[in-house]
Amino acid sequence: FFFLKLNFLFLFMSKKLIEIEKQVVLVGHGGSGKTCILHRVFSKKFEEKYTPTVFEDTKHTRIIKNQQITLLILDTAGQDDYGRMIEINLNDADLVIFCYAVDCRNSFETLFSDYFSLLGDKTNKLIFLVGCKTDTREFQQVVSYEEGKALA
């Protein structure tokens, strides 16, 4: 048994990890919920207080089977002043997450004109559309599920 266990450990440890690195960019208007997504996914926390993000990058690594997957995540600013910087980061992104707040019609309606257009013809990227703040739907329904689905 001991010998088999050592052989198994040797085989497991001798497999070289395949390193995969992907850049993820979150885009959307200020207050749309981009930063909250990151906090919930990676720290399991929810911040009720809104603090505007200028540009915040984080790195998260997970090992799945024999693959070491590193996500370089950029939480972009939602203010208009940073359009050119967002465009540059979109060029390098492997995955783009477009975020809008379901309780703010403006964040939904201008998502296309303000941010989708920055992608141009770069169709080789994975793109997600995320409606944030869905927990507020009971209190105020501004953007419906159907509208979000139609935009996607």
Written overview of the protein:
The chain has 152 residues and is α/β, with parallel strands linked by helices. The protein has a single domain (16-151), classed as P-loop containing nucleotide triphosphate hydrolases (Rossmann fold), CATH 3.40.50. It has five helices and five strands. It has helices at 2-14, 34-43, 83-92, 105-119, 145-151; strands spanning 18-27, 56-64, 67-75, 95-101, 126-132. It has a five-stranded mixed sheet, with helices on both faces. Strand 4 (95-101), helix 4 and strand 5 form a beta-alpha-beta unit. Helix 3 (83-92) crosses helix 4. The longest helix has 15 residues, at 105-119. The termini are far apart.
Helix-strand layout with pairing:
Elements: H1 2-14, E1 18-27, H2 34-43, E2 56-64, E3 67-75, H3 83-92, E4 95-101, H4 105-119, E5 126-132, H5 145-151
Parallel strand pairs: 1-3, 1-4, 4-5
Antiparallel strand pairs: 2-3
Helix pairs in contact: 3-4
User: How many helices in DSSP terms?
Assistant: 5
Query: Mind telling me which CATH architecture this is?
Result: 3-Layer(aba) Sandwich
Largest sheet: 5 strands, mixed
Oligomer: single chain
Low-pLDDT parts are 1-7
First-last Cα distance = 55 Å
Shape: globular
β-strand percent reads 25-35%
Q: Give me the side-by-side strand order of the main sheet.
A: 2-3-1-4-5
| The CATH class | Alpha Beta
* SSE pattern, N- to C-terminal: HEHEEHEHEH
Instruction: Look at the structure and name the CATH superfamily.
Output: P-loop containing nucleotide triphosphate hydrolases
Q: Which radius of gyration do the C-alpha atoms yield?
A: 19 Å
Structural class: alpha/beta
Number of strands: 5
| Helix amount | 25-40%
Keywords: GTP-binding, Nucleotide-binding, Signal
Organism: Tubulinosema ratisbonensis
Protein name: Rho-related GTP-binding protein
Signal peptide: 1-18
